[in-house]
Amino acid sequence: MESSRVRAVLFKNEQHPTDAHQILISPNITKEELLHLASEQLGISAKKIFSETGLLLNSLNSISDGTTFYISQGENFQVKSSSSPQKTSKKYVICLLGAAAVGKSAITLRYVSNKFVRDYDPTIEDYYTKNVVIDNEPTVISILDTAGMEDYSPLVDDWIDNKDGFILVYSVELPDSLTRLRFFRDKILHRYQRQGNKGPVTVMAANKIDIPNRNVSAEEGRKVAEELDMKQFEVSAATGQGIDDVFADIIRVLRSRRVVQKKENKESWFKKACSLL
């Protein structure tokens, strides 16, 4: 992944937009190029681009990471300010890492669209976005699906940067894929070594538990999870078993940290105020 590329979020210009499409683009992309990409991503004839505030964009300045655009087929701005999921929902970025052929893309597509894709072209990197309500709280989850081939190992450092959570995926068909998780875990620990509990949440997911004869037992997976200090989930992209639980657990842990941090900040402010009396 080129470090100069940024993420942009596209919505159709509707009163209550809910279907977010996240793409990687150059920060210096032209309006015409963005309209072309938006037409492909949203399946419409894109003619106008609006900002989150409803401003019609006749040209694009340098785009920052995470910028949201509303795409029109020619009609005026339709979005009601209270309906934008970007304004009412907390956003988290989760990355899937693991060896090739463990089912990272299948897990992602099962979670995002509730579909199982058995034959999928090898991924280098793809971003997906899902708007979901977890424990009655609206949440936007941005998911980075990555390659597992050894050829793409140099990209891992870029993939792990600026993420809220990681799902380290292995297949119960492939014992080597479980061993491979140590490499990804070490990379994450090195990148976030000074952040402690403020760093990303990392869990393990054993995929393909629906197969009749597995080569990695649940106990073997749990043992590695304990060694690497991670929670272990058993999932099946084919049936959907356990998929929602993995993402929901990460979000709940991140939320709990947010609550603790707010409490600590409040207590710190109170102690500082008292010391000045």
Automatic annotation (TrEMBL):
Which InterPro entries does this chain map to? Doublecortin_dom_sf, KHA_dom, P-loop_NTPase, Small_GTP-bd, Small_GTPase, Small_GTPase_Ras-type
Source taxon at top rank: Eukaryota
Gene Ontology CC annotation, any one: membrane
| Domain KHA stretches | 7-89
* Any single GO BP term: intracellular signal transduction
Question: What NCBIfam families does this protein map onto?
Answer: small_GTP
Pfam family membership, one: Ras
Q: Which UniProt keywords apply?
A: GTP-binding, Nucleotide-binding
Provide any one GO MF term from the record: GTPase activity
Q: What is this protein called?
A: KHA domain-containing protein
